[in-house]
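Quick one: sequence plus pyridoxal-5'-phosphate SMILES, need structure tokens.
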Amino acid sequence: MYPRLKIDIPKIKHNAKVLRELCQNNGIEPMVVTKVHCAHPGITKAMVEVGYTMLADSRVENLKVLKSLAPGVKTVLLRLPMVSEINSVIEFADISLNSELKTLRALSSEAVKANKVHEVIIMVDLGDLREGVLPEDLESVVKEVLSMQNLAIAGIGVNLTCYGGVIPDDNNLGRLVELAKLIETKFNISLKYISGGNSSSLYKLIDNTLPKGITNLRLGEAVVLGRETAYGEKIENTYEDAFLLEAQIIELKEKDSVPTGKIGMDAFGNNPSFIDKGKMKRAIVAIGRQDVRVEGLTPVDAGVEIIGASSDHLILDVTGASRALEVGTVIGFRVDYGALLSLMTSKYVEKISE
Ligand SMILES: *Cc1c(COP(=O)(O)O)cnc(C)c1O
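Reply:
Sure thing.
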């Protein structure tokens, strides 16, 4: 079946092991994030075998899968809970990330009903402008949460390089550690997790400049694609090629490089423009925007170039292809984070693991 995504689990497992050791050698207990692969069973099991004790995802549906695959492991809800999903959060998440008192109150009362203690990490916004309480509000939020029944404050955390693209540095991560110390002293509590961000914080760990006091990182992309995400650098001794997308040629013809006729909008409402390269050898591959974020694909074959895509068609310039192609030939692509996310979510793409 094509299109299909080949998943090399031993490579991902290797990456996961390297990163866990890097964390542990620096006093950090990492969470491994499963959202980019939708809690794929084979990958998830490999993470547990490597020794990760906390699995994190942004969807409660995926946490439910994680619980069934790995009953002994702690599940972490990364996205702030919706007030409409509080009972399943209490049922399937051991820990959740939070920034709203209204939601925390709802979690508390549901935890009381379920006779469970639910752990929370309070998120602080240190500049990236996605989730988190403002630093000046942290103390009053913590004070209030401490009075809520059946909630335990497991820590505080920050998320960076997601919306605003803010790079983790000594300033923002230093501030997080400072805030944690302040909270611990003020309320005489100890915070288990001082959660210093995602794969974008790894470069600090690699450079040995991560502020002392950070005790947790939440790692997704680095594990599956072998990259830190602050600067997009490859991480030493990890694989970047654990995924291979394969799709099949359904048309192969020599055609013009510029459409004929008056040019209006394309299928997605954009006004396309073209460079006249004369005649070219063009291949249509049976995959499209319905399946994948096309901008995140890189053809494996030298001399093959993506020139466009619609819902179900990907168009390639194969004029310079380094091997003989025909209708039916399978073309391979490497994927970035966005492409991987869409491929794992598409029901039209078969997933095959080795
Ligand atoms: C997605 C997510 C992560 C993991 O991010 P990566 O860049 O894939 O490591 C960590 N924390 C939160 C809150 C997230 O939403």
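The pocket of pyridoxal-5'-phosphate is lined by residues 33, 35, 58, 78, 97, 159, 198-199, 218-222, 229 (CB under 6 Å). The first strand starts at residue 4 and ends at 7.
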